User: Which sequence fits this backbone?
């Protein structure tokens, strides 16, 4: 009888243990799927890394940012009453004008304190986005600025000619295949392209001038496409604070009189991302366990050098 | 040596309602601290520090959050359903019932898993199952075996075993 009772407790523990493991698995999947951060907090951290496009792009493993995702995250943080401020962690060379404008507009619409924190690079479209925040924090060596528009592309007509391949042009309107890599631009088309770039360039200059409360003339002078180091940008009024994450947090704490608790807002993930994240988490824990056993300190330091 | 000891007498009777209630709350407690805890932590991460009104506005303004909470509810319900169904099917008891010496028995000769799912359907917090929250306990008072409505449907009942 006692044996039977012990068996029942054993079965109960096994079933509860199994359900508990299932529960951990499902909660990880749901949490990752909906991008739930690790901690509760009052300051949202939204990463903007890699090239910025309006939709998710796959560029050979390079990280990209989708404006659709970022705008969603900004709106989500804006609706959350416990979020008092948003930090944008920017490490991007720029992106498409539309994607940059979408994110910048979303930032301007928020009723929270916003801080752009530029890390290695925040140029072109990424600077457009950064300028929409209340304050820009950058390292003295961060690369920023590069206000300008680029529309360059590779043109293969010479290559095709070399291999005796002809481009059979079939268009209903004379500029329909303008920008095709299989033929050269006509002078008229080149002019049209330059006009378009000039219009976007003006929008860019206007936006930066308005966002940074600078005169349009001043920004136009800086908008020759050159980049500036963080320290130079500070002197020119393109950056407010020289520093890093701590300085961004300090600014928020002093302005809002709060103790900042960061919560990372991440975009939604597809099934493959979810599985790889769960696997990498578990692999990391296993690896850390092995690493701790091998190493005395349990910590290794990576040194990166740029030359 | 052949001792003529009196045989152990076992009496089976309808389970007292209070015992059943206590066993149910013990099971809910166990579910809460084990199976539900990962989901509770997940929900805590999305709950903003705000008034209940602000919280509701926040939840309903975000379709993703509504979907997430719906998925969490479905999974938690399924896990709770499995907790009762598997344990009652496998060993005729849950930890709460073991402690209170209660057993779930089938009134059919062949014991089927579906019987144990049906008797636990009251856990599902959606229409039409939510009606069972009223019908199920009331039904106990209107039949001689003290069966809940879902127990009647599943041809199962809860009994107490007394060793004399």
Assistant:
């Amino acid at each position: 009888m006692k044996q039977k009772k012990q068996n029942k407790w054993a079965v109960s523990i096994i079933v509860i243990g199994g359900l508990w493991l299932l529960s951990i698995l499902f909660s990880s999947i749901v949490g990752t799927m909906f991008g739930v951060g690790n901690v509760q907090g009052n300051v949202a951290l939204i990463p903007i890394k890699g090239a910025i496009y309006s939709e998710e792009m796959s560029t050979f493993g390079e990280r990209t940012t989708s404006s659709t995702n970022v705008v969603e995250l900004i709106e989500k943080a804006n609706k959350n009453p416990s979020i008092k401020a948003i930090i944008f962690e920017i490490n991007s060379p720029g992106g498409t004008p539309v994607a940059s404008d979408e994110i910048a507009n979303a930032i301007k619409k928020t009723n929270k304190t916003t801080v752009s924190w530029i890390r290695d690079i925040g140029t072109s479209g990424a600077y457009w986005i950064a300028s929409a925040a209340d304050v820009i924090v950058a390292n003295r060596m961060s690369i920023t600025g590069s206000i300008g528009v680029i529309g360059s592309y590779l043109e293969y007509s010479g290559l095709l000619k070399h291999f005796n391949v002809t481009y059979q042009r079939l268009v209903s309107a004379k500029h329909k295949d303008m920008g095709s890599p299989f033929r050269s631009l006509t002078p008229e088309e080149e002019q049209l392209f330059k006009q378009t770039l000039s219009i976007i360039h003006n929008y860019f200059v206007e936006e930066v001038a308005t966002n940074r409360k600078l005169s349009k003339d001043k920004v136009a002078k800086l908008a020759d496409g050159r980049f500036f180091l963080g320290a130079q940008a500070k002197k020119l009024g393109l950056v407010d604070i020289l520093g890093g994450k701590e300085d961004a947090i300090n600014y928020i704490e002093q302005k809002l009189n709060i103790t900042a608790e960061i919560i990372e807002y991440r975009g939604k993930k597809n099934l493959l991302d979810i599985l790889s994240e769960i696997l990498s988490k578990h692999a990391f824990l296993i690896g850390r366990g092995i690493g701790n056993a091998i190493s005395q300190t349990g910590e290794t330091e990576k040194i990166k050098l740029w030359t | 040596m052949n001792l003529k000891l009196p045989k152990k007498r076992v009496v089976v009777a309808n389970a007292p309602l209070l015992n059943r209630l206590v066993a149910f709350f013990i099971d809910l407690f166990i579910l809460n601290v084990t199976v539900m805890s990962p989901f509770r932590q997940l929900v805590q991460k999305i709950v903003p520090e705000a008034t209940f009104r602000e919280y509701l506005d926040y939840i309903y303004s975000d379709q993703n959050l509504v979907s997430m909470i719906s998925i969490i509810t479905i999974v938690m319900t399924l896990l709770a359903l499995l907790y009762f169904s598997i344990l009652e099917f496998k060993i005729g008891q849950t930890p709460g019932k073991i402690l209170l010496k209660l057993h779930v028995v089938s009134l059919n000769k062949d014991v089927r898993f579906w019987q144990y799912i049906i008797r636990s359907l009251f856990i599902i917090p959606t229409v039409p199952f939510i009606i069972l929250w009223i019908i199920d306990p009331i039904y106990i008072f209107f039949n001689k075996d003290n069966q809940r409505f879902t127990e009647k449907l599943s041809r199962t009942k809860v009994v107490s075993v007394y060793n004399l």
Observations:
- Confidence is low (pLDDT under 50) at residues 285-307 of chain A.
- The two ends of chain A are 76 Å apart (CA to CA).
- The interface with chain B takes residues 5, 7-9, 11-12, 15-16, 19-20, 22-24, 26-28, 30-31, 33-34, 36-40, 42, 72, 76, 79-83, 268 of chain A (CB under 8 Å).
- Chain A has ten helices and ten strands.
